[in-house]
Amino acid sequence: MDNSIIEALKSFFKDTLIYLGPKILYSIIIFFIGILVIKLLMRMLKAVLKKSNVELSLKTFIESLSIFVLYGLLFTLIGSVLGVKATSFLAIFGAAGIAIGLALQGSLANFAGGVLILVFKPFKVGDLIHVNSNLGFVIKIDILYTRIETFDGRIITMPNGNVANSDVDNRTMKPIRRVDLNLKFAFDIKMEMIRPIILDALKAHPIVEKDPEPDVWLEEIGESEIKVTARSWVESIHYWPTYWEQLEAVKKSLDEHGIETPIPRRIVYQGGEYQSNTSQAKSKD
Known about the structure:
rod-shaped, Alpha-Beta Plaits, 22% strand, Helix Hairpins, disordered C terminus, 3-stranded antiparallel β-sheet
């Protein structure tokens, strides 16, 4: 090989080493110092999150996002020391973000929904919610999915994107709830007669709230009966047991007083006259 080429290569590597050597050394120093600073900042962030009332899933998300941002800043700083322009890093990050966004559109929607749920807290673990025709207790809130357990023991996993964009009925957010019993009676039943019977049955329950007091009102006059609503208030966590117990108590009290449920009636016209028969009459042989 020609000596001039060898000398040129030696000169090139020498100049490159002189030019890049200090930058590489500075980059290594910045890298290790940056690692120490990131660890210190993350330790402080975890201490702050631990003292706060932030949900566990949100804490994990904030920590992961913080690590990503801090390391991104560190490598951007190292790149600028080595002579790489910041705009190049921004272009790389932008292109990567677009590619990832197109590939993970659904997951990003769930991710955004999870952030909204964890930040604004329309519900929390342990709440009874009704969303997208599903009723159950929230057992877990992830950054992408929410899991609820129904009364019949099923576990339903719902994407946070759908949950965040749906109407969520949180039935345990308020400390007390109203128990509504929808009852039906015949037309000839007087409200003055059945109201005290139903009220006594409602008030006899040991955990029903005294304020507001239970009440009974005529709700609607139907085609073949009157519709009555009996209402009482109870702590939200006791809603369903109280509902069933109140319903049974009212039925038992009405039976003891000889008040029956209404029998649907129909009018049959015959020869210019009419006679009234019940729709539940026994068929003749």
